[in-house]
Amino acid sequence: MKIAIGQLSHETNTFSNITTTEDTFKKWEWEDETILIENHKGVKDYLGGMIDGASQLQIEVIPTFCAGALPSGIITNETYETIKSHFQRNLSRIQELDAVCLALHGAGVVEGIDDLEGDFLQFIREIVGSGIPIVATLDLHGNMTRKMVKTADLLLGVKLYPHTDSYEKGFEAINRAYQLVKKEIIPTMHLEQLPLMIPTSTSNLSPVKNINEFCNEKENQLGILDCTFFHGFPYTDVPFAGVSVLCITDDNRELAEITAKSVSSFVWEKREQFFPKRPTPEEGIERAQKLNMCPVVINETSDNPGAGTPCDGTRLLRAMLNAKLKKACIGLIYDPEVVELAHKQGVGTHIEAYLGGKTDQFHGEPVFIKGYIKTLTDGIYIQSSPMWKGKVVNLGRTVRIQVGGLDIIVGCLRNQVFDEQLFLLHGIAVSEVPIVGIKSSQHFRAVYESIAKKIITVDSPGLSTLNLNSFKYKKIQRPRYPIDDMMHQSYSEYFNYCTNKTS
Predict the structure, then answer these.
(1) 51 lies in which domain range?
(2) What is the pLDDT of residues 285-332, one digit of tens each?
(3) Do 131 and 171 sit in the same domain of this protein?
(4) How far apart are CA 422 and CA 419, in angstroms?
(5) How would you classify residue 112: left for phi > 0, otherwise alpha for psi between -120 and 50, otherwise beta?
(6) Claim to verify: residue 181 and residue 42 sit in the same structural domain
(7) Neighbours of 83 (CB within 10 A)
(8) Taking Cα atoms as reference points, which of 107, 26, 42 lies closest to residue 388?
(9) pLDDT digit string (tens) for 86-143?
(10) First-to-last C-alpha distance (Å) of the chain
(11) Do β-strands 380-382 and 392-394 pair in parallel, antiparallel, or remain unpaired?
């Protein structure tokens, strides 16, 4: 049996002014055939799971192409066409192909194409034909569409945030593709799209934890292959942005629809719980100081580069500097100019510069610093987080600058903090630092929940703020909670409204 594997992954923040080009992808993942296998074998990510799953089943896995980039703005048409040409060339070479297994995201946007994944799946379908099964993994932040469901044979979303089940989902995808080829299952999918957008919400806590438990109960029923709660990605202004539920049964369309509607109603009842009030950076620091614990982690959710923000926001940085903390650290601040200057001057010298706040007007003004250059690095380390463990991370040159009692990690590539490795690279043991500031919404929790004595999430204006009403949406379908007042409307009332509207 021959199964082709590949990846096209991008979470597009349409409010970002950073256009996504071929160079953007090449800074992260741009891998042809053999390199794809080398870079993902033994790594706990989607493709790593597919490779191991195929090995266990003694299936011949054929790599096609892998394009993955850090979340940013809209992808250029030229870049998308180049990516498609790589897939077309490599897929067309394969003789006697049995199935295709892809790692996609679900929230990609190209110039003129709101639904990247739907378009791409259709493109792959045209290459391989109607008789070849197509299975794809998806991020739970996917903005799901009926075109995706119609074009693929099976769509499997991760359920955990942090996405520590990426490897397992890739492994499952290969197994499901195998079952499809053997005609052991007839996947039947039903997608339920809710009039709801939610901010980034960890699966470690309620309400997502409760919803996942409810989905798991449904999966234990005979005939249900998968039931996934997709959070959607609220920082993408497309008509179908929002929460959805996808239920997959083994040849039972009625059961798929009933189950998806049941879970959707359960989610809708909990909609208020997705919007807790979070402190400002200043309030978060004040709380951390009163706790007298070590370490206390403060995550700046409004400038999370994992959601397409610039990573050079200065609101938390400025608050930490103003607090004159005796021992603290923060990372990562994106500022190639400061990195360049620091590497020219060298370790042991003093530096004066305006740091951060140079990409847009949403995340704070540049901060003038006078600091000491403590450490310079090449920015290369091995990810130790359970999420994508074993991945080689190359951030390019970085610097550790000490300003009073605050250690600031500055880099020339945007990236959120997943684990402690970035700090260790610069000689900082976060377990010994009373206050640790990081740019991330939830993925850091996979490691830091076992390190931190307390985690404080702070919010402020930014492209990944929890305050969705701060965005000027133009394309999303209305009504949409919380943009519209739907607090007193039940899910069945909304469903009946939609049915009457289209009849």
Answers:
(1) 1-185
(2) 999 999 989 999 999 999 999 999 999 999 999 999 999 999 999 999
(3) yes
(4) 7
(5) left
(6) yes
(7) 24
(8) 42
(9) 999 999 999 999 999 999 999 999 999 999 999 999 999 999 999 999 999 999 999 9
(10) 46
(11) antiparallel
